[in-house]
Amino acid sequence: MATTTKTVKKTTSPVGLKTTANNKTGKMENSEFHKFFVDELKDIYWAEKHLVKALPKMKKAATSNELADAFDKHTAETETHIETLEKIFSLLDEKAVAKKCDAMAGLLEEANGIIEETDKGTMIRDAGLILAAQKVEHYEIATYGTLKVFAENMGHNEVADLLAKTLENEKATDIALTKVAESFINEEAAAE
Questions:
Q1: Where are the alpha helices (DSSP H) in the chain?
Q2: Is-contact 170 141, C-beta < 8 A?
């Protein structure tokens, strides 16, 4: 039986850092990929800062106490997400700056449209608010999931861990909204 020896070639990256095929240094601040990553962090930072302002309006528009409570909880969690992003910026030696997120702006505009187009005090409104909130959650899940993988690929392990925690929280919120919808809201909305 023959044995083979695998050698790992050391190279110098475009930014002058020594890397190996099996080792990521986490020191990619000057790479285009790192700049893109930071730009996308600024985008989700804007999204979270605007979502935290929109959730109280959604809570006020909700008919059921269960949905209002879910929006209250989500507001507190979103405040935590903002703090986590600020910590991530700090870890990356970047200033926490928000860049307009066109996707979130559109999703929040759609939520406002649902409030305007549905009757106050109806389960149809609540069903619509859950729809709007879950669209937001799915956008956030996609964003945090991708940013986590980006961070892992650059060796930003602590950043990746923080993004993973936020990702799991967003998934849990999505599940909680589904449970509220399925508990009685969708059935009552269909009967209205």
A1: 32-61, 65-91, 102-117, 123-154, 157-180, 186-191
A2: yes
Q: Find tokens 């307009």 and name the residue.
A: 100
Provide DSSP, 80-123.
HHHHHHHHHHHHTT--------HHHHHHHHHHHHHHHHS-TT-H
For residue range 138-167, what is the model confidence (pLDDT) as tens digits? 999 999 999 999 999 999 999 999 999 999
Structure tokens at 75: 């507001």
List, for residues 64-107, the tens digit of each pLDDT value: 999 999 999 999 999 999 999 999 999 999 999 999 999 999 99
Q: How many CB atoms lie within 10 A of CB 146?
A: 15
